[in-house]
Specification:
The structure holds two protein chains of two kinds.
Chain A (H helix, E strand, L loop, with lengths): L2 H25 L12 E5 L9 H16 L2 E5 L7 H10 L4 E5 L4 H10 L4 E5 L8 E6 L1 H15 L4 E6 L4 H15 L6 E6 L6 H13 L4 E5 L4 H11 L2 E6 L10 E6 L2 H9 L8 E4 L10 E4 L5 H16 L11
Parallel strand pairs in A: 1-2, 1-3, 3-4, 4-5, 5-11, 6-7, 6-8, 8-9, 9-10
Antiparallel strand pairs in A: 10-12
Chain B lengths: L1 H38 L4 H13 L2 H26 L7 H17 L6 H30 L3 H19 L37 H18 L1 H11 L1 H6 L4 H28 L10 H11 L4 H25 L5 H39 L3
The chains are: A alpha/beta, B mainly alpha.
């Protein structure tokens, strides 16, 4: 008799654990009632849509498309290399009109399935359109890093600013170039460091990197990280130096450190594709001139003096008007 | 005579129980999962119907199941063979990475040889890559007594980072100008053939099944297999019988690693046609779970692998139809393995109790009560 309560308790705990793990998914189930002539859009994510970063912002773009462009949405998360083809083909067979893959790692698989289903439309973020029934969008890290660089060199007192990236990918190369060009605009010989962390999500590692950079006198930190940004910004917060956020206003991560954030969401790439704003067969950038409030822009906090805000905004306007050309990932 | 029949019957019961254990575990796991699906707000019957349709309902579904089963079977064999010698190869992931890398190297170099030979070379390279990766842990286990569990497990991380390094410029294995780290494409001649047009079903499944059958016969009918089972059964007895236990352990681990390498090679040569950064996503560990489920039996591994593969293939369909996360497949897998272990413990406890009763009774008789 004595044994049973223990077993029941253990069972209940196990059940509760598993339930809590799969609970939320059900509430987010795709709407079941198909409406005539509503386009069905499916998006495929490499990670979970609650990662506070690449996938979550991407998903938010998909939801925005649902709200504003009246499409019906569905998604799959954590879709890895071995199941890419299968998931794309499943959506195609289920009659989805637009299938969007969130990330350059899907390029090969999407190309294969796009050729198998010439009547459907495919979208790729951070990659290139390779068929006529596919479009691709690329978020301009080059322009974002440029704007961050301009702000950083105006705010630095030690003449050393640093850019921390998850890994050096081609997108990252553009970021580094933009960063260096931006920092050089002040003309006061500011040192622009860039370093690769080797991880997009390792918060502790990012904090260590931040502390090391600060010890080397860097006093403005910018990044191209996913969830690891919290670590980097906390290092700036604790050591009393500045930091610049990415994708969204990051001041909640470091209210006394964040002087501004470069806006431009991974979701904008999905939004533009889901709403069919991109010409078929083309690869376009998401940049300062992308309409609809989803392009690249700057957000400042009160920690940035008004005159500096104005100066950076001037640069932003010059980029927009085309007066200033720092290059782009792809031609618009 | 009577005693003999009893023995035969007892042996028969053992075989039935052995087969029944995984099946009972699967039924229990599906039942518990049904409760979970119901609790998550979906109809379990509808969900399982979608699961079944997504795994066996059409040619495309069957192909998906086959694609998912292939690395699981190979990964499972890489672990299961070790079981027979009492060894735990937890390094499936690492061996997959290395096997995939060596197969890729051979697969992207244009060679003036017939295509079948090129493919064969790439597959052999995959085996060699996996075996190479387990060389150190195998040596340490066999000749220095270092636990292979820790060393093979740790090398998984090393392998992941090593492949990552291989795929980033300026490495010669990195494709230039891509948006994600990957190798150049495997040459058409070195790819495993697609078995059903319009799907991804590739020759890897045949490789896995043939290997499973071969391993079964090796374990049953060769001296290598007999030695392996002796070492697994009782190393001391094996040594007393003249088996070089250390050498046997070393050899078995090398073959385990090689099969792990094949699992990676078949993914690259059959499914992806490129080596991608972080392309192994836990399949190595699922192979371990599978091997536990079927207790390392190579023939059961094929069936078990197809079952696990069907869960994974069907789960995506289930997600599209009912909105239940595809990760439910992993929950079912994990529950299956847990139930197998639990049933195993239960059986042993029962046996122990029976034996205790028996010895009690004998004691009583001996004491003259």
């Amino acid at each position: 008799m004595k044994k049973y309560p223990k077993i029941v308790l253990a069972g209940l705990i196990l059940l509760a654990l598993i339930l809590s793990a799969c609970g939320p998914s059900a509430t987010e189930a795709p709407p079941a009632a198909p409406v005539e002539e509503t386009k069905k859009v499916a998006a495929v994510f490499p990670g979970v849509i609650t990662d506070q970063s690449w996938n979550q912002f991407g998903y938010e773009g998909l939801v925005k498309a649902e709200e504003e462009c009246g499409v019906e949405i569905a998604y799959s998360e954590d879709v890895f290399q071995d199941e890419q083809l299968e998931v794309f083909r499943n959506y195609a067979a289920e009659g989805y009109d637009i299938i969007i893959a969130h990330g350059g790692e899907y390029a090969d698989s999407l190309d294969t399935v796009a050729k198998e289903y010439p009547d459907l439309y495919f979208g790729l973020t951070s990659g290139e359109a390779t068929t006529t029934n596919m479009s691709a969008t690329i978020l301009s890290y080059r322009q974002m890093a440029y704007l961050a660089g301009v702000l950083a060199c105006k705010m630095t007192e030690t003449n050393h600013v640093a850019y921390v990236l998850g890994e050096i990918l081609p997108t990252g190369d553009h970021g580094v170039e933009g960063w260096e060009l931006g920092v050089a605009t002040c003309g006061k010989d500011t040192k622009a460091t860039s370093m690769a962390l080797g991880s997009w999500s390792d918060v502790a590692k990012a904090r260590e990197a931040g502390l090391t950079l600060i010890a080397e006198d860097a006093d403005v930190l910018y990044h191209l990280l996913d969830t690891a940004d919290a670590g980097l910004i906390s290092a700036a917060e604790d050591e009393g130096v500045w930091a610049i956020g990415l994708y969204r206003d990051s001041s909640s991560l470091g209210p006394n450190a964040i002087i501004g954030s470069t806006l431009g969401s991974p979701g904008a790439m999905i939004y533009e594709l889901a709403c069919e704003h991109v010409e078929r067969g083309k690869t376009v950038p998401i940049y300062v001139n992308t309409p609809g409030g989803v392009g690249v822009s700057m957000h400042f906090t009160d920690l940035t003096p008004d005159d500096i805000q104005q100066e950076v905004n001037d640069v932003f306007e010059q980029l927009k008007s085309g007066e200033l050309d720092i290059g782009l990932e792809v031609e618009p | 005579m009577n005693e003999r029949i009893k023995n035969v019957l007892r042996g028969f019961r053992g075989i039935v129980l052995l087969g029944a254990r995984p099946i009972l575990a699967i039924i229990l796991a599906l039942t518990v999962s049904a409760v979970l699906i119901w609790a998550a707000g979906a109809n379990p019957i509808k969900a399982y119907a979608a699961l079944l349709e997504g795994s066996f309902g059409s040619v495309a579904a069957l192909a998906n199941t086959a694609v998912r089963a292939t690395p699981l079977i190979l990964g499972g064999l890489a672990v299961g063979l070790g079981f027979k010698a009492g060894l735990w190869n937890i390094g499936g992931e690492g061996q997959m990475y290395l096997g995939a890398a060596t197969a890729t190297v051979v697969g992207i170099i244009p060679l003036p040889i017939p295509t079948w030979l090129h493919l064969l070379l790439a597959v052999v390279a995959g085996f060699a890559g996996g075996a190479l990766w387990i060389l150190t842990p195998a040596f340490l286990r066999a000749y220095r007594g270092v636990s292979e569990v820790v060393s093979t497990l740790m090398l998984n991380y090393v392998a992941g980072y090593f492949i990552s390094w291989l795929l980033h410029e300026p490495s010669p294995l990195a494709e230039t100008g891509t948006f994600f780290p990957m190798s150049p494409s495997i040459l058409p001649g070195a790819r495993l053939p697609i078995l059903v047009k319009g799907t991804s079903m590739h020759g890897g499944l045949i490789l896995a099944i043939v290997l499973g059958v071969i391993l079964y016969f090796i374990l049953r009918h060769t001296t290598f297999g007999f030695r392996t089972r002796m070492v697994g059964g009782n190393p001391e007895t094996a040594r007393y019988a003249g088996v070089d236990v250390k050498r046997q352990m070393f050899r078995v681990l090398l073959v385990c690693g090689g099969i792990g390498g094949l699992a990676g090679a078949s993914e690259v040569l059959g499914l992806k046609w490129r080596l991608f950064d972080y392309f192994v996503s836990g399949v190595g560990y699922e192979g371990l779970a599978l091997a536990i489920l079927v207790n390392g039996n190579p023939l059961s591994m094929i069936i078990g692998g197809i079952f696990f593969g069907s869960l994974k293939a069907g789960a995506n369909k289930m997600q599209i139809v009912t909105g239940i996360e595809a990760s439910m497949a992993l929950v079912i897998q994990a529950l299956t393995v847990l139930f197998v272990i639990a049933i195993g413990f239960g059986e042993r406890a029962l046996l122990d109790r029976e034996q205790q009763k028996k010895s009690h009774a004998e004691e009583s008789i001996a004491n003259g009560y």
